[in-house]
Amino acid sequence: MNFEEIAPNAKKVAIYGKGGIGKSTTTQNTAAALAHYFNKKVMIHGCDPKADS
């Protein structure tokens, strides 16, 4: 089973850039706003190779 089978209408958003520009804060605030505004569940998946955030 893959992601498209589980959630065929899911939207994917990428937030990226160099370190220290507020990606984590922006991600959290965006996810909270989307969940509240659309009354839906939001999943955040981190892909930081350093894994320090």
User: What is the rounded Rg?
Assistant: 13 Å
Overall outline: flat
In which range does the helix fraction lie? 25-40%
- Quickly count the helices: 2
The end-to-end span amounts to 29 Å
Oligomer: single chain
Major beta sheet summary: none
Unreliable segments of 5+ consecutive residues: none
**Overall pLDDT level:** 87
The portion of residues forming beta strands comes to under 5%
Record field, number of beta strands: 0
Task: List the helices and strands in order.
Answer: HH
The count of domains is: 1
User: Structural class, from secondary structure content?
Assistant: mainly alpha
Relevant terms:
53 residues, mainly alpha, 2 helices, flat
What does it look like?
- This protein is mostly helical.
- It has one domain (1-53).
- It contains two helices and no strands.
- It has helices spanning 3-6, 23-38.
- The longest helix has 16 residues, at 23-38.
- The radius of gyration is 13 Å and the shape is flat.
- The termini are far apart.
